[in-house]
Amino acid sequence: MGNPVRDTSKFLSYILRHEPESIGLALDSEGWAEISVLIEAAKTAGKSFDRKLLQQVVDTNDKKRFAISGDGLRIRAVQGHSSVSVAIDYAELIPPQILYHGTATRFMDSINREGLRPGQRHHVHLSADEKTANAVGARHGKVVILRIEAMLMYEAGYKFFQADNGVWLTAEVPVEFF
Ligand code: HQG
User: Fold this and answer.
1) DSSP label at 107?
2) Is the CB of 125 under 6 A from ligand 1?
3) What is the pLDDT of residues 74-124, one digit of tens each?
4) CA angle (168, 169, 174) in 5-degree steps
5) Closest Cα to atom 27, ligand 1: which residue?
């Protein structure tokens, strides 16, 4: 059965970032789902949770992956989307001098050829500190941490955004900025 908070968090990541249509849910372009509709759609798909558990998932999430709207009626994932129906209009920000990207050694040949690409997701995800980058990279294997010249990129015209949970986002990172 597992841990209901953790299980629901994983389920929400899948539904709110990647495959809302798998349970017949529609997200708006900002990634929001109506909570009442989500709860019903999930129940029909065999995943039961109530509003209270949902709130607990949002409040206790280690990476603050989800947000509930001010009126309490809607929920979204704050970053990490691959769903084509979502195009969050993140506020553009001036990045710090350096940002970090944690990845795995086995990706480095390709990364050194192509730079960092968003892959399935909508953005390349960058971290403000090396510790976070290390944890992100460790999900994939033996870690490499790339130091990214974010300010130089910004000065060259690349756009930077920050999700509500502090993760930095950009469209791509060419190799000359490593
Ligand atoms: C790599 C987690 C080959 C890239 C984290 C990464 C993050 C390339 C992998 C968020 C490449 C994609 C995102 C290229 C990039 N050739 N490999 N040209 N360019 N890659 O999971 O950044 O727990 O989609 O280095 O905390 O690891 O889900 O991205 O290793 O914030 O909330 O391709 O996901 O958050 O992997 O992680 P991912 P990521 P959550």
Assistant:
1) G
2) yes
3) 999 999 999 999 999 998 999 999 999 999 999 999 999 999 999 999 999
4) 115
5) 136
